[in-house]
Amino acid sequence: MLSLEQAVLSLLNSPSQTHLDKSEVSINEKMATTVRIETSVRTFVEEKSQALGISLQDLISLILKAVMLKSDEKNEEKSCELNNIISRFMEVFEEYNIPLFDVPKLFPENRIDLATLNSPQQLLHSIDDSVLHIIESIFLIKQEWLKGLPNVACHQTIYMLPDLHNLSREIMRHKEEKADVELIFCHKSDNVFSYLPLRKAKSLGNEFDSQEISVVVKARKRIRDIETTVYQVFNSLSWNTEKSRFYVKYAAKLAQQLNILTWTGTMPSSIYSKFSNGYLMPSSAIKKHFKRGGFDFGVFLLDDEKNPEREELADVISWYNKNKYMEINNLTYAN
Q1: Are 309 and 202 in contact (CB under 8 A)?
Q2: For the segment 103-113, what is each residue's pLDDT rounded down to a tens digit?
Q3: Where are the alpha helices (DSSP H) in 160-268?
Q4: What is the spatial distance between Cα 313 and Cα 305, in angstroms, rounded to a whole number?
Q5: Closest of 85, 93, 173, 177 to residue 135, by C-alpha
Q6: Residue 335 DSSP one-character state
Q7: d(CA 286, CA 269)
Q8: pTM tops 0.85, yes or no
Q9: Mean pLDDT for the chain overall
């Protein structure tokens, strides 16, 4: 979108042979008025009006109308952004099935009450950085999105690369909060989950489709006397590279050691990309688009013929023992 300055300059800098259609500049309900302008400005505007083939009065009217319309645009943009703040704030709690009655419990006493939630103006007045930080820390919702900004991701993606300990630390944090933790292995695929494309990706390496997989931590917990389920999406890993493949098997081994329930399934390609990059709320994306099915990723930890990649097992276990977050040795939690 052109700025006001750009729009006016574009008009004034039009080629001299280009004339505007008089019907395009006619103004309904014209009112006579007097505008006092400096001599140099009048000379400049007169030259431009002659070049455009319209009267001096019509050109000045066009410029003033552009100012008016641009002001309206800015007001509309501001109003849209403010409306986004309110709607997105409320969307978070709807997404995580938190009744409006319980929302005030998430914030310091008297920070936000039910009356505030019922008044858009009061709610806007109450939402500040401290409120956004609380929502971000609980649900991993990006503050930029909560602030109403367009074209930004709504949910944080956590990286397993290069720090393997991110996954271990997040699981430990949930466990220490007495949460019920599960791991979801989400495969980017438009078909039913099958090992065949993974095998092809492994054997052909970068020459084949990468076969992307995201590990998701699902934790059902109580947050300030409110029961909810939160999701943490880790960055997409490619099965066709050994390091990424080992990271997925690392997650499976971690789940095995901590006795964590795991799920395997697929998500359509068109949805997966938005999901893994944080442009979809993980709760809705998983409920609507994740198709459970396929073998347990724990099969890659078996030391028998059931493991389709048994030749990597020794290296995977050695790599796991070398890189694991040592504090998990003290955990004996069981679901």
Answers
A1: yes
A2: 999 998 878 99
A3: 165-176, 196-204, 242-257
A4: 12
A5: 93
A6: -
A7: 13
A8: no
A9: 83
